[in-house]
Write a structure and sequence with these properties.
This protein is of the alpha/beta class. It is built from 13 helices and 14 strands. The chain has a single domain (5-380), classed as 3-Layer(aba) Sandwich (Alkaline Phosphatase, subunit A). It is 30% helix and 16% strand. The protein has an 8-stranded mixed sheet with strand order 5-3-7-1-8-9-2-10, sandwiched between helices. Helix 8 packs parallel to helix 9 (244-277).
């Protein structure tokens, strides 16, 4: 068998129950459906910090954000450069590595051209870099995408539209399509660039390509024809929201969200088509996941950063014909921190440190046995964190520690987390065990014992 290629496809703020038509029967995701049909879905994967920058850091380094620096539990600070990454390990094992799309390792909402900082991304372990800043971030940051738009006379059109839609700029979400064509929309450009890279790759090394899409993150701006395919009236209302005006507002946002998802799905399909046409599908591990979810009306809230499954739950779909059993769903509990260890194990890269972790002290546990063997068990619980709260969750129960009061949810009987049982006498005996689990996870969330300098690589067999 030829060396294994790895195609990691991620998107941004994609809620777990909008991967298919379970919540919105009208949602069309034929390419995600195909990937799930031909591979295995890990239905209970979770972000360790449900906002953009911390999760993306975890994907590459196998560390909780709080292990590297408490300030990383937010979107306001650049990533550190002193740690070895999974991409470094793959390079050392003979892989050609590439990033196309959003990495989000640089912070600060001010004018900055991240193309001038792509050398930093290369030092993180990527041979080829074509990097974008993100949906609303492209209002402030210049990047490969804004250069693309400027060359075509479309940058002012795009930024005017972002300003009209973005609350941080005094705008609001609008029930209107993007003024851009699908191929000029951010995910269209990322998808086309990734398709061309796959079409043209002729190296003698196996490849690791991370394609990082930016939808369905706000602003909710699907281009036509995807905008017109979803009517607000057809959208289910969020659980527990009764006010008619609020329900209508969430239905409008859900219609826009679905349009972005279908547009993104088509771009995923184009990448799968290249693998098929070039005969690469049988020796390319395809992984699809997202950095975090979106409340999208749950508890009458929007966005991310909360402890609910709608914000934290991030399924993973893996496909490798003949190795990963097709059409399978595993309920194993996995974390975002497990992703890089899984990729390294699948690629046959074993670090000279315990348990196939990226660093001493890494909480990563490869879930390759779940993908390749369909195992239903991986972790007894998952851990997630953000400034102001910490949680542990097993299959049936979720415990959230907050300074202003604990939360306890019976997920089997209350899957939408509507009833806090922390003060219910009938469940008082359950809390100590969950607290011990939370403390055990937090005790492992310490800074790794490494003095590696910026840009250095770990040693691998």
């Amino acid at each position: 068998m030829p060396p294994l290629n790895v195609l990691l496809i991620t998107d941004d703020q994609h809620r777990w129950d909008f991967y298919d038509a379970r919540t919105v029967p009208e949602l069309r995701t034929p390419c995600l459906d195909r990937l799930a049909r031909e591979g295995l879905t890990l239905s209970h994967a979770f972000s360790n910090c449900p906002i953009c920058m911390p999760t993306r850091f975890t994907w590459l380094y196998g560390l909780y954000a709080s292990q590297a620096a408490q300030r990383l539990m937010g979107n306001a600070h650049d990533w550190p450069t002193r740690f070895p990454s999974a991409a470094h390990a793959l390079q050392a094992a003979g892989y050609h590595t590439a990033l196309i799309g959003k990495l989000h390792s640089l912070a600060g909402l001010y004018r900055r051209d991240i193309t001038e900082h792509e050398n930093v991304t290369r030092r993180r372990g990527f041979d080829d870099v074509w990097e974008v800043s993100g949906k609303s971030l492209s209002y402030w940051f210049d990047c490969r995408y804004t250069h693309y738009l400027r060359d075509r006379g479309l940058l002012d059109v795009y930024r005017r539209d972002v300003k009209r839609r973005c609350p941080q700029l005094g705008g609001r979400e609008r029930l209107e399509p993007s003024p851009l064509e699908p191929d000029d929309h951010m995910d269209g450009v990322i998808g086309n660039r990734a398709r061309d890279w796959l079409n043209g790759y002729a190296g003698d090394k196996p490849f690791f390509l991370h394609v990082s899409f930016c939808g369905p993150h706000f602003p909710l701006d699907p281009p036509e024809p995807y905008f017109s395919r979803y009517r607000p009236d057809a959208m289910p209302p969020p659980e527990g929201v009764d006010d008619p005006a609020a329900v209508r507002g969430w239905q409008e946002q859900r219609a826009l969200y679905c349009g972005l998802i279908e547009h993104l799905d088509a771009r995923l399909g184009a990448l799968l088509e290249v693998l098929d046409r070039r005969g690469l599908a049988r020796n390319t591990l395809v992984l699809f996941t997202t950095d975090h979810g979106d409340m999208m009306g749950h508890h009458n809230r929007s966005g991310k950063g909360l402890w609910y499954d709608t914000a934290c739950r991030t399924p993973v779909i893996g496909r490798l014909p003949g190795v990963i059993p097709a059409g399978t769903v595993s309920p194993a509990l996995v974390e975002a921190a497990d992703l890089p260890a899984t990729i390294l194990e699948a690629a046959g890269v074993t670090p000279r440190i315990p348990a196939a972790s990226l660093l001493p002290g890494s909480p990563a546990r490869s879930y390759w046995n779940c993908l390749a063997g369909g195992a239903a068990e991986h972790r007894p619980w998952i851990y997630s964190e953000l400034t102001g709260w910490r949680l542990c969750r097993d299959r049936d129960w979720k415990y959230v520690f907050r300074p202003d009061g604990d939360l306890l949810f019976d997920l089997e009987n209350d899957p939408w987390e509507q009833r806090n049982l922390a003060d219910a006498p009938a469940h008082a005996g359950r809390l100590p065990g969950l607290r011990r689990r939370l403390i055990a996870s937090m005790s492992r969330s310490v800074a790794p014992d490494t003095d590696r300098g910026a840009g250095t690589r770990a040693e691998f067999d």
